[in-house]
Amino acid sequence: MRYAGVIFDLDGVICHTDDFHYKAWKSLADSMNIYFDEEINNRLRGVSRMESLDIILERYHGPPLSNAEKLRISESKNMHYKNFIMQMDESYVAASVLSTLHELRENGVKLAIGSSSKNARLILDRIGLGSFFNAVTDGNDIEFSKPHPQVFLLAADKISLSPGECLVVEDAFAGIEAAVAGGFDCVAIGDATRDVRATYTVTDLEELPGIILRE
Ligand code: BG6
Ligand code: MG
Fold first, then answer.
1. Ligand with smallest separation from the Cα of 138
2. Is 18 marked active-site?
3. How far is the CA of 107 from the centre of ligand 1 (A)?
4. Which of 5, 28, 52, 62 reaches 20 to 30 Å from 182, CA-CA?
5. pLDDT single digits (tens) 106-147
6. Residue 100: helix, strand or coil by DSSP?
7. How far apart, in whole angstroms, are the C-alpha atoms of residue 179 and residue 47?
């Protein structure tokens, strides 16, 4: 086996919450008269909630905001976002993703989640994968968000493997950068396939066993 463990990003890899993030940020930006579009939204991929807010506020021209106000704004976005998450169920995991996860697990590969989101455990519960992974590390466990490698290093540690023994799967540039910084090989999917730093690129997770299980 080429890799003994796989660390998956959650949003944009296991399931798709991008549109929920976009709608919640968009309604907040509209309420503050801030220009926001899909291209700016792409820059939020993999980045923590507060750092995402800072990116959105680059286009804010109103009176200065205190840290307490920024926190209140981010909490209000999160409440809106969580209403969308509560609509999620097992149908939000593609059949090919689920069968790939099972195939890897049946072959003895350790599987972990390494997500910047503080809602990762809630999302995993909603999509029926709350107790599937060997370890979950998320935005609640880390001090430094992607592109810092902390979330992946912690995940590797929790499954008792070194970075060299693990493969990271990511849809964000920030996530690819984090994987490379942590000494991990990485698979890019979706938006991240444009990142030349990725070790492999795939169009569907079902290509993973071919990469991971070979000698
Ligand atoms: C990442 C998303 O998974 O989580 C980012 O790609 C998001 O877009 C980040 O900003 C933080 O999410 P949350 O759920 O903690 O607000
Ligand atoms: Mg992602």
1. 1
2. no
3. 30
4. 52
5. 999 999 999 999 999 999 999 999 999 999 999 999 999 999
6. helix
7. 14
Place of tokens 């709608």: 23
Protein residue with least CA distance to atom 11, ligand 1: 117
Report whether residue 17 contacts ligand 1, using a CB cutoff of 6 Å.
no
Helix (H, G, I), strand (E, B) or coil at 142: coil
Q: Report helix, strand or coil for 168.
A: strand
pLDDT of residue 52: 97
Beta carbons of 113 and 136 less than 8 angstroms apart: yes
Q: Is the pLDDT confidence value at 215 over 80?
A: no
Q: Is the CB of 41 under 6 A from ligand 1?
A: no
Q: Ion ligand 2 — residues with CB under 5 Å?
A: 9, 11-12, 171-172
Token representation of residue 215: 């000698």
Q: Is the CB of 115 under 6 A from ligand 1?
A: yes
Let me know: does 14 contact 112? Beta carbons within 8 Å: no
Q: Which amino acid is at 80?
A: H
Residue 78 CA, closest ligand 1 atom number = 16
Residues 6+ apart with CB under 8 A from 179: 149, 152, 168, 170, 185, 186
Q: Which two tokens stand for residue 67?
A: 């840290």
11 is catalytic: yes
pLDDT digits (tens, 9 = 90+) for 140-198: 999 999 999 999 999 999 999 999 999 999 999 999 999 999 999 999 999 999 999 99
Distance CA 18, CA 179 (A): 21
